[in-house]
Amino acid sequence: TEKARMMFGNPSKSNQDIIVQLIVQDTVIAQSGLINPGNKVTTLDLVPKIKHSLSEGTYIGKYLVLFYDRETGEKEIVTTEIAVNITVHE
């Protein structure tokens, strides 16, 4: 489907907006738009140049979470990496 199915939420108690990147082998394969507190992402479109380069199988990847100030929109210095297993189906 050329989409990444996932579940990632920004808790309603958060004081920051976030962007989530899905990364495999140091390459961003999908990225969300800005996720406001209390919202979640369940699917992301794969990056066009990547969608045909991933073979079926399981990969070790990560979420890279980027934080943004809600008032100024400026990117915060802090980022978070979360290890994930990624399964590609044809």
Give a short summary of the structure.
This protein is mainly β.
Rounded to the nearest angstrom, the radius of gyration is 14 Å
- Structural class category: mainly beta
Indicate the percent of residues in helices.
Answer: under 10%
Multimerization state: single chain
List the secondary-structure elements in sequence, H or E.
EEEEEE
Beta-strand percent range: over 45%
Mean pLDDT: 91
Indicate the low-confidence ranges by residue numbers.
none
Strand order of the largest sheet: 3-2-5-6
Head-to-tail CA distance between termini: 8 Å
Number of strands: 6
For the largest beta-sheet, the strand count, sense and barrel status come to: 4 strands, antiparallel
Annotation field: number of helices: 0
> Which overall shape is indicated by the principal axes computed on the Cα atoms?
elongated
Structural features:
single chain, 90 residues, mainly beta, 4-stranded antiparallel β-sheet, two-stranded antiparallel sheet, 6 strands, 0% helix, 60% strand
